[in-house]
Amino acid sequence: MTENLREFALKHLTDYYDLLRLPSISAQKEALPETAELLVELFNELGATRVEKLGSFESAPAVFAEFKGNDPTKTVLFYQHYDVQPPEPLEKWESDPFEPTIREGKLYARGASDNKGELISRLVLVKYFKENGGLPVNVKFFVEGEEEIGSPHVAQIVQENREKLAADACIWEGGGKNYVDNYQIVGGMRGITVFDVETTTADIDLHSSLASYAENAAWRLVRGLATLRDDTGKVLVEGFYDDVQPLSKAEEEAVFAYDFDLDVAISRAGLRRTLKAEHKLALVNEPTMTINGLTAGYQGKGVKTVIPHMASAKLDCRLTPSQDPKKIAQLIQEHLDKNGFEDLKVRYRLGENGHRSPMSDPFIQLVLAKAKDYYGKQTKYLPNSAGGGPAEVFSNELDLPIVILGVSYAGSQVHSPNEHIRLQDFGDGTQLLGDILVEFGKN
Amino acid sequence: MTENLREFALKHLTDYYDLLRLPSISAQKEALPETAELLVELFNELGATRVEKLGSFESAPAVFAEFKGNDPTKTVLFYQHYDVQPPEPLEKWESDPFEPTIREGKLYARGASDNKGELISRLVLVKYFKENGGLPVNVKFFVEGEEEIGSPHVAQIVQENREKLAADACIWEGGGKNYVDNYQIVGGMRGITVFDVETTTADIDLHSSLASYAENAAWRLVRGLATLRDDTGKVLVEGFYDDVQPLSKAEEEAVFAYDFDLDVAISRAGLRRTLKAEHKLALVNEPTMTINGLTAGYQGKGVKTVIPHMASAKLDCRLTPSQDPKKIAQLIQEHLDKNGFEDLKVRYRLGENGHRSPMSDPFIQLVLAKAKDYYGKQTKYLPNSAGGGPAEVFSNELDLPIVILGVSYAGSQVHSPNEHIRLQDFGDGTQLLGDILVEFGKN
């Protein structure tokens, strides 16, 4: 039934080039209403039964669309976003970032991978089924315009539109082929808590000749931070690991089978030191604590012999899906208080819950089976990625499994100049998605 | 013999206003050759037997002058500088910083205290003796033009002009009345070693989702630095205190009699924490280690979840006069190496030896006795100040005692807007210096 989908997708890709031409850069609030409006038109053309803008109409509304399927009892929700990262540095692009260009089997444009190319794959999919017997199941689109600036309004929009967004399963954006070109499916994301640690020891910086009696904010910060983590990366905060939940046996096996080569990672980044022997398990199911930045005193050229009166650090903790971002920040403050560093103040900046759909969920199993049919048994499954994203509010509010799969590959240069996808991946990924919908309609 | 010196000094202060009018800002290389040239003229007018520029003629030469005294077997060397700090912020000045102005018994100008006012005091002194029976002893002036930028050429100039500068004693610049208006004499300075500690853990910053295996330069720096000093301020580096030499009993008594009130220091700087009970002794004869600045990763607004690949700290150690700056930096590197932080590199920036003339030296005793005669027995003596300066090369190369005394007071706002001296201090300080020369000539 989806025999020609791959070819259809490649043929009709160009129908949606206008999406790639709009410079919808959320960080610069550029072309966002226009892109949302274009999406509304495209969804209407494709025969959506309902199209709506959700959230702020003036700035970057999310666009919702609903399509009826042959089996009206089943619904799949697609999460996408239409905003992109700024294209700078422009001089590093080999073609105009906002003029989609095909070279050597690759489609180049800002957003070609993240996330307009994939959005086009799903639009083409709907068009295919419109012309070939109809969608097997209901399909809903949620396309936001603020993903690249941290999805500040998604939680509220989802909470306010729970019934509209109701579905049986969600297919998330992102993903595709991994660095050894095996197709990869992901069942979740780690959470994160982001906070500052600050201390003030005086009203003003003092001359360092007074260091015999005047305490120093930088020393307080350094000594307090040093109590938080040991040299192996283990976090020394009481209760930090309490809410980490073990993986199932099947998930653990999937993690060990996951393609990750530490030596490759080391040589790519020129890494001088690594932390964990069991780095695959750690990436999926261990929380971390990272100093993102340190600031104190004089940082200019040459020498200035001052005692800094203020010092601060920016930190984040990547959390396993079962951990609570605010609770972790609170545990860290309690640790500092207990260890004589009550002058070091933890300032909570933001947090995002992690999320992990059980690998045993029937929809996840269906997706995995179809992917293995299409890409072969070397297809990989990761229970959750090392990074984060706003998926948890969907799984929590809508009570559905979420699976991440896409049409990109490890070389897509997401967020960088010359972002692209390979046309073969675009065709294959669209074909797989069609196969999944058809299979879901059968059960 | 010096009966009218105080009045003479106050009357003739205005003769030297041109010195204060020249904006000889060494940090901006402004008006330095002109000021050196004016000094040459002034010294010649005063009847110097020898006047020479030492060091670089183009930029900021030091000016040397020699005056013969009635007792040709004794020589006192005056160390001064003619360069000043930039006057900014200009809007905070109540009168033009380069137009000397008297208001309510105070002389306002950039350099009025540091160091042109004091230089004028010593020029007026020579003029007085020229008109009143001649100088009791030989007097030499060494007036440099780079003190405010760290005296980069003084050591070389002194080494190359050892015989020219030869003297029996040196009277250094700076000082006067302390914060409770007692006159204060200082016999030395602490040394200093200034260095960076740097580490690099990768070629690039990495996304913090990789913190499960990728080590972080900021964590390395924080944990390494934390091993260097404890929470009481004690330095934990092996051998750090080995070369500290005890004060004599008389020096220790002088330190305890020194005017220093920790509560005043605390309230002035809004200090939240202090380190030492014996803070007077610590300020004089304990080395310190200070973090001057910390730099790593992202320090901008908001959040950036990166693993910094580089981190660095700027530090200084204030050293007691008997410690060697380079050796201390080396001990710190050895400590880091021994404690598993061989990736943290100590980069030596600069160092200055401290210096302390023995309080028992006859010239120091003579100065102290004359000061007590003039200012009363509440006059204080400090074996060395908490800060530093380029005195050690003079004591070391010329083998002479050095004593610091001047015509300023604690409220002189050195390096700040509205820098000034009180006319009474100018008169008194000049009178004392005359008494000292006369007494020195007698012995």
Automatic annotation (TrEMBL), chains A, B:
Q: Which Pfam families match?
A: M20_dimer, Peptidase_M20
Single GO cellular component annotation? cytosol
Q: Which UniProt keywords apply?
A: Hydrolase, Metal-binding, Protease
- Annotated ranges, domain Peptidase M20 dimerisation: 197-340
- GO-annotated biological processes: lysine biosynthetic process via diaminopimelate; proteolysis
Which molecular-function annotation in GO is an example for this chain? succinyl-diaminopimelate desuccinylase activity
Q: Tell me what this protein is called.
A: Acetylornithine deacetylase
